Amino acid sequence: MSFWNKDLLRLAITILIAAIASSFIGHFLYLLLIICIGLILRQAFLLNQLEDWLRSGAKSNYPSSSGLWEEIYYHIFRLKKAAKKRKKKLSLIIEQFRRSTSALPDAIVVIGEHDEISWFNNAAKEILGLKKKDKGQRLPNLIRAPAFVEFLSKKDPGIVLSIKAPVNGQVTLQLKIVTYDQNAHLLVAHDVTFLKNIERMRKDFVDNISHELRTPLTVLKGYIETLDDMGEDHSPLLTHSLQQMHNQTLRMQHLVDDLLLLANLETQKTENNCVVIDTLLKQICQESSALEQLNSRIELFIESDINIFGNDQELRSAFSNLIVNALKYSDEESIVTVQWYQSCDNVILSVADQGEGIPELEIPKITERFYRANAQRENEKHGTGLGLAIVKHALSRHDAQLKISSELGNGSCFSCIFPKRRFC
């Protein structure tokens, strides 16, 4: 029999006794009222007893009772016991997580809705200079670098910020925001000092070796031209050899020039002004057509009068590389289309050719230095392998993106997308 049925049976027996008693003394309703008042007082006492037990945290065993109230106490006690087990399990998981994150070499900071610090690992103490008393403080109040404050306000997972460490100016940090809840974020700081030093050494090496190669190449080129001009009685073998030497020297000269240009794009700051794109594109197309001796190959369409705030020489280098590549890697009878137009909040330069196209898997790689797509074709069309790398770096300095679409056998289209903030 359930506890509820027992209470009902007890109530029924009490009413029956009251009815039997009333048959002798009368006043059945009064007896029934007294019974109801007694039951109400008993329930109030038991409710108060339950409230006292819960207020104390339900730490001790539940009070002894009977009937339905005993069942209620039992279920509460059982739920509390299960919750205690879950809490203990969660505590172990959280503790294990904290130990593992504390052992990470990267600094990790948990920040809330208003950028207040909730938790951080040991690496954050060493890299960011945080202390135990900083918990609850707003992170921008502790790290006041303007670039960091702006980065933290955006909370964009796609943005990576490189700054000097607050506690050591010799250390370079790479910061990233990870959102794991609606108003909860992780700030991850990675020490990239070693990688930055290697990158700087590589750039310095390329820059220095390029400068050192310029002088011997100039001397070698001068002597080759002198030998070639000494007379017309050269043997066919010598004439061919001089021509090959001259071609390879020119190729080396172009490689050195491209390396120096790429190094400048990566390191040097340049002055920006309003570049008239209409005039610039017409000049580049005329020069490129003159080099190819095919004045009708390029079709230029200027569909927007928007100009770009940037560096004239860098944009000229990027645009000319795209146009020359389109001419070089397409049939001599085909047309190269150059178009300058506006699309929504962007302005776009597209260079489309009717060449062989680029395999889809190679498209993300062709902007890397010295990467060769379709090596067989490259043997016929010599290049430095730095053209698209120069384009990519020049565009990045103008907040622009390079989008490449291509299909084998149907040509390629290279689009330079400039944002509205670059309009002038």
Provide the fold topology:
Layout: H1 3-25, H2 28-55, H3 68-102, E1 107-111, E2 117-120, H4 122-127, H5 139-142, H6 146-154, E3 160-164, E4 172-181, E5 184-191, H7 193-229, H8 236-267, E6 273-275, H9 277-292, E7 298-302, E8 308-310, H10 312-328, E9 336-343, E10 346-352, H11 375-380, H12 387-396, E11 401-406, E12 412-418
Parallel strand pairs: 7-9
Antiparallel strand pairs: 1-2, 1-5, 3-4, 4-5, 6-8, 9-10, 10-12, 11-12
Helix pairs in contact: 1-2, 1-3, 7-8, 8-12, 9-10, 10-12
CATH fold assignment of the largest domain: Heat Shock Protein 90
Uncertain regions: pLDDT < 50 for 5+ in a row?
A: 375-380
The largest sheet has its strands arranged as 2-1-5-4-3
Helicity, as a percent range: 40-55%
Q: What is the rounded Rg?
A: 40 Å
Described by strand count, sense and barrel closure, the largest sheet is: 5 strands, antiparallel
What percent strand? 15-25%
Q: So what's the overall shape?
A: elongated
Number of beta-strand segments: 12
The overall pLDDT, averaged over residues, is: 80
Oligomer classification: single chain
Structural class: alpha+beta
- The name of the CATH superfamily of the largest domain reads Histidine kinase-like ATPase, C-terminal domain
Overall structural domain count: 4
CATH uppermost class of the largest domain: Alpha Beta
* Distance from first to last alpha carbon: 88 Å
Tally of separate helices: 12
Order of helices and strands: HHHEEHHHEEEHHEHEEHEEHHEE
Overall CATH architecture of the largest domain? 2-Layer Sandwich
Catalytic activity: ATP + protein L-histidine = ADP + protein N-phospho-L-histidine
Main location: membrane
GO molecular function: ATP binding; phosphoprotein phosphatase activity; phosphorelay sensor kinase activity
Enzyme class: transferase
